[in-house]
Amino acid sequence: MTADPGEGPHMRQLLGAYVLDALPAAEARTVARHLSRCDRCAADYAAVAEAAQLLALVREEDLLE
Ligand SMILES: [Zn+2]
Predict the structure, then answer these.
(1) What is the distance in A from the centroid of ligand 1 to the CA of 12?
(2) Residue limits of the Putative zinc-finger domain (predicted)?
(3) Domain for residue 1, yes or no?
């Protein structure tokens, strides 16, 4: 089993803002540190980052219609 990272709750709720670079620097640092220790959130981050890129593309095309 994976050990508890020991920094309180997981960061899933912050990942979206983190991907969009919308977090204050201190919070972004906390998320980055958590991601380096928590495989589960790191995997979620990878998925969110990919989705954000896809959404950006879709949004751009939708605006053209
Ligand atoms: Zn986590």
Answers:
(1) 7
(2) 12-42
(3) no
